[in-house]
């Protein structure tokens, strides 16, 4: 399946700029009443009670066997009210479940007839700032704003892997709001359904009814990493979910596959290795970002180690696939995008001796990261070369407001003032730069002394802990906690060779202890033994995959990839 050039451009725009689409497959449910949060706490898998006004979270409900009934997000808007964002296909099931368990609780659930507009991409917060005066800062945060006397609820939520938002508003305000977005200086591009699907799968985001349904237990879907609290009180399905967490991992769980060739594997196709079924294929697309076919698939725990090449059959047709962690695509931060634009601007100037295009890129770079001092400096230099000294001075003054201790800003102001013949102002800024440089040198020297004192105190405490652990090991040489603690201290204090033995002891006795593999791999890295580190990480990744320890698994995968790239 080949994507059209238009679809590819939409995807690239979302990855580098901003795109929008109406979220016609999503809806809002209002929850109001003094028992709203306490009731939801008893019904859902995540911990609702700690939510403050303006905060939100991913959540789900399951049956007694931990099979998924619905997944959604909850966003607290007032002391006793919240909004629930859910796929339209799950709305009735969710409402029926909540109503069936509600008895005397003071909470009312109402499906709202609102339009939802998704704004996705690294420039989405900048576009929002041009229309609204504030924005959300953390995923699932919600803010209620007013525009032309119309209420707009803005939820920070990524549907593509990039920073993104969902705007919720009355239907009659849709055209006017859309027009405001399209009138911005660099308006977002409209994103088609085909592009949305590629972005979603690259971001590793499963959807109900396609990648998961009521036959799946929640831990199979990967939702437990974002939608489950293991510290809250009872809810339906908790016992099964907790037992899986404690004693292992589900037999099958969702992960990624990259597929050789151009053919998409069949949806719901059976993945077989020889005569053995090892998985089931779900959503598949040709990835624009990776330039290869990718699939979401449920894979058996014996084959969930990432970066394993497999020659399999899918519905009796041969395929070559490679396992990988989700997401397929890791979004860059706004700072990363800002640095990228700075590099592009400098490269264009170097190759083409052009100023207009680099200046445009640098303005965008500063919008993405208001503290990117290098972008300010480059933009100021380019503006001064166009004899736009007033604008260059204004730019440096803005940087000083953001960071009064930025030496470069004061130095450049001195240069620009000198070019304008403003000798007194130039001398003042030069003196400011010199004074800040002197202050920073004193602070650095004081910080070094403090750091040395803290290091001496820490060393003393570490020696006491080493002695304690050694006393335990005299009684039980294979004690898990003491050996792991000893290895951790030796790694932290630079005694790498001494750290090998206790960590190897842990792994020999507890072969599924993924954190110990991670620590041992780091120790081998410090000893410059790349081969031993890679071998340790491979074994650790396999152990973590079977157990479902996602965090150490990803850490080991990233560290191993870094070694291989060196």
Keywords:
alpha+beta; Serine Threonine Protein Phosphatase 5, Tetratricopeptide repeat; six-stranded mixed β-sheet; six-stranded antiparallel beta barrel; 20 helices; 49% helix
Describe this structure in words.
It is a single chain. With 566 residues, the chain is of the alpha+beta class. Among the domains are: 18-187, Gyrase A, domain 2; 334-441, Alpha Horseshoe (Serine Threonine Protein Phosphatase 5, Tetratricopeptide repeat); 476-565, Serine Threonine Protein Phosphatase 5, Tetratricopeptide repeat (Alpha Horseshoe), CATH 1.25.40. The chain is built from 20 helices and 17 strands. It has a 6-stranded mixed beta sheet with strand order 8-9-10-7-1-11. A 6-stranded antiparallel beta barrel has the order 12-15-14-13-16-17. Strands 3-4-5-2-6 form a 5-stranded antiparallel beta sheet, covered by helices on one side. The mean pLDDT is 92.
Task: Present the secondary structure layout.
Layout lengths: L4 H12 L2 E4 L3 E7 L3 H8 L12 E7 L5 E11 L2 E7 L3 H11 L6 E5 L1 E7 L3 H8 L10 E6 L2 E7 L7 E7 L3 H9 L6 E2 L2 H10 L15 H4 L2 H4 L10 H10 L4 E8 L10 E4 L2 E12 L4 E9 L8 E6 L2 E8 L9 H19 L3 H13 L4 H13 L3 H14 L4 H13 L3 H53 L4 H13 L3 H14 L4 H13 L3 H18 L2 H16 L1
Helix pairs in contact: 1-6, 10-11, 11-12, 12-13, 12-14, 13-14, 14-15, 15-16, 16-17, 16-18, 17-18, 18-19, 18-20, 19-20
């Amino acid at each position: 399946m080949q994507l059209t050039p238009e679809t590819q451009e939409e995807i690239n725009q979302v990855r580098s700029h901003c795109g929008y689409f109406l979220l016609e497959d999503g809806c809002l449910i209002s929850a109001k009443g003094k028992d709203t949060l306490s009731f939801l706490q008893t019904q859902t898998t995540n911990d609702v009670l700690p939510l403050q006004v303006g905060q939100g979270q991913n959540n789900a409900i399951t049956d007694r066997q931990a099979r998924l009934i619905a997944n959604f997000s909850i966003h607290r808007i007032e002391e006793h009210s919240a909004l629930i964002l859910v796929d339209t296909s799950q709305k009735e099931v969710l409402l029926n479940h909540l109503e069936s368990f509600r008895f005397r609780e003071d909470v009312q659930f109402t499906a709202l007839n609102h339009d939802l507009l998704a704004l996705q991409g690294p420039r989405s917060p900048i576009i929002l700032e041009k229309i609204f005066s504030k924005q959300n800062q953390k995923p699932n945060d919600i803010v209620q704003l007013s525009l032309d006397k119309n209420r707009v609820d803005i939820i920070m939520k990524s549907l593509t892997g990039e920073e993104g938002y969902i705007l919720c508003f009355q239907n009659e305000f849709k055209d006017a709001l859309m027009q405001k977005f399209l009138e911005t200086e660099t308006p977002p591009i409209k994103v088609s359904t085909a592009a949305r699907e590629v972005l979603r799968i690259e971001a590793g985001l499963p959807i109900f009814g396609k990648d998961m349904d009521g036959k799946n237990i929640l831990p199979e879907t990967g939702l437990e990493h974002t939608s489950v609290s293991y510290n809250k009180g009872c809810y339906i399905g908790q016992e099964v979910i907790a037992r899986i967490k404690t004693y292992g991992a589900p037999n099958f769980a969702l992960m990624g596959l990259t597929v050789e060739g151009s053919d998409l594997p069949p949806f719901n196709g059976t993945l077989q290795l020889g005569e053995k079924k090892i998985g089931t294929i779900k959503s598949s697309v040709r990835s624009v970002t990776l330039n290869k076919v990718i699939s979401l698939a449920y894979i058996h725990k014996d084959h969930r180690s990432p970066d394993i090449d497999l020659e399999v059959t899918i519905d009796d047709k041969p395929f070559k696939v490679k396992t990988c962690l989700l997401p397929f695509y890791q979004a860059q931060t706004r700072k990363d995008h800002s640095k990228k634009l700075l590099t592009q601007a400098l490269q264009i100037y170097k190759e083409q001796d052009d100023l207009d295009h680099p200046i445009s890129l640098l303005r965008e770079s500063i919008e993405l990261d208001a503290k990117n001092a290098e972008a300010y400096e480059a933009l100021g230099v380019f503006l001064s070369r166009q004899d736009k000294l007033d604008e260059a001075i204004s730019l440096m003054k803005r940087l000083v407001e953001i960071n009064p201790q930025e030496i470069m800003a004061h130095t450049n102001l001195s240069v620009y003032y000198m070019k304008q013949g403003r000798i007194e102002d130039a001398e003042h800024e030069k003196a400011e730069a010199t004074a800040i440089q002197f202050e920073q040198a004193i602070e650095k020297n004081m910080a070094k002394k403090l750091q040395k004192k803290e290091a001496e105190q820490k060393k003393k405490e570490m020696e006491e802990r080493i002695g304690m652990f050694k006393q335990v090991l005299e009684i039980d040489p294979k004690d898990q906690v003491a050996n792991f603690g000893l290895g951790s201290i030796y790694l932290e204090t630079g005694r790498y060779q001494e750290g090998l033995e206790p960590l190897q002891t842990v792994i020999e006795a507890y072969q599924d202890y993924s954190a110990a593999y991670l620590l041992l791999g780091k120790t081998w890295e410090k000893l410059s033994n790349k081969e031993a580190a890679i071998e340790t990480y491979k074994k650790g990744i396999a152990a973590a995959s079977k157990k479902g320890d996602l965090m150490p698994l990803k850490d080991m995968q990233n560290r191993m990839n870094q070694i291989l790239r060196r």
